[in-house]
Amino acid sequence: MYTEDMELYHVLNRGVDKRNIYLDDNDRLRFIHDLYEFNSTCPAEYPYRTIRSGDFVSPHLREKIVDIHGWALMDNHYHLLLSELIEGGLTLFLRKLNIGYAKFFNERYGRSGTLFQGRTKKILITQEAHFLYILHYLHLNALDCLAGAEGWRERSKSGITDLKKALCYLNTYRWSSYLDYAGKKNFPSILRTDLFQEKSGDYIKELQNYLRDAESLAPQFILE
């Protein structure tokens, strides 16, 4: 349950000059692995192996530094919904994640220099209304890749012409927390779902209702 003593952040970072930060599915799997591996008080062990499995379970016990409530990967940026578990956990986690993934990416592709465009953007979710919709916003980013649904942010202007097609596309898109919230095991070990599930009940039905709602998206929690 969302409470006043909990700080929930919408986090975004993108590639420098808006360049792609994931060039194939192995890159995406590596980043998801890093969401798990770097979420620990322990120094990160960073094996440069190809990640192929669908979920990641560390062989050692660990103390998490943040809870990950939602995530979405696009070609040139990522979105996260995070809350701290220890003081300074948010900053520590994002530093480990960005540096660690950039090191992997640069080594894999023989490049050097900055991968991300600068300081990670963070916005504190302070209103209940924003809390109710921010998870939908993250998951619907995938529709930017679907012809006929690119205007989903402008729902009042019929941004999605085929709701059924849009939902089918989301059910095939692995690179967000949508499938886990929809009851289809994808990458459950990195995710804490109870915060939103207590509010939503039937997540897919709520998402459909959200898309049919004529109100525009609240600009306060849109970082792009």
Structure description:
The protein has 224 residues and is α+β, with helices and mostly antiparallel strands. The protein has two domains: 8-122, Alpha-Beta Plaits (2-Layer Sandwich); 127-221, no CATH class. It is 34% helix and 12% strand. The chain has seven helices and four strands; from the N terminus they run βαββαβααααα. The chain has helices spanning 25-37, 89-109, 128-140, 163-170, 178-181, 194-200, 203-212; strands at 8-14, 66-73, 77-84, 121-124. A four-stranded antiparallel beta sheet has the order 2-3-1-4. Helix 1 runs antiparallel to helix 2 (89-109). Residues 47-51 and 214-221 have low confidence and may be disordered.
Domain unit count: 2
Report the total helices: 7
**Major pleated sheet:** 4 strands, antiparallel
Task: Determine the CATH superfamily of the largest domain.
Answer: Transposase IS200-like
Secondary structure tally: strands: 4
- The radius of gyration over CA amounts to 17 Å
Assembly of the depicted chains: single chain
- Portion of residues in helices? 25-40%
Domain Transposase IS200-like: 4-141
InterPro entries: Transposase_17, Transposase_17_sf
Organism: Candidatus Kaiserbacteria bacterium RIFOXYD1_FULL_47_14
Protein name: Transposase IS200-like domain-containing protein
Key terms:
4 strands, 7 helices, alpha+beta, 224 residues, Alpha-Beta Plaits, 4-stranded antiparallel sheet, globular
